[in-house]
Amino acid sequence: MNINVGNRSGVVIPAPPAVVVPAPRVVIEEPPLFIAPPRLGFYVGVDIPYDIFYISGRYYLWQDNYWYRAPSYGGPWTVVNHRNLPPGLRKHKLERIRYYRDDEYRVYSHEHDHYRGKHFKPGKEYKERYKEERKREKREYKHHGEEKGHGHGHDD
Known about the structure:
By secondary structure, the chain is α+β, with helices and mostly antiparallel strands. The protein has helices at 87-90, 94-111, 124-147, and strands at residues 33-35, 43-46, 51-55, 58-63, 66-70, 78-79, 119-120. A seven-stranded antiparallel sheet has the order 6-5-4-3-2-1-7, covered by helices on one side.
């Protein structure tokens, strides 16, 4: 009688080979437009040659049969396993996402300035917020000067 517990037979089981995933090739000259088709519930990049999505402050890319995640639409991209994708992205097949994206982009293109759906361009919000902040600062500076009598012919 011979009883073995565990792997004491002297056979070494090799570790699975490491999978090397190529870095994605993404070149975007200017911030892309993202729209949120109501049927999806997340933002999809349009008018660019990539499948890029924006969900909960992160960008996701599908390229060469791999999913990637990045803090910016320009990267740096790291591989993400399908099971670690956000639930909204994971539950839709890519073909269906593209269909909803293209359908909503037709609406956006037709209505453009009157489009009522959710959309944004990365960086644009920052520029607009910066402009508003500068206007507010100028108003406060002007108001502060008026309180001290500046600009109203009063002598200090």
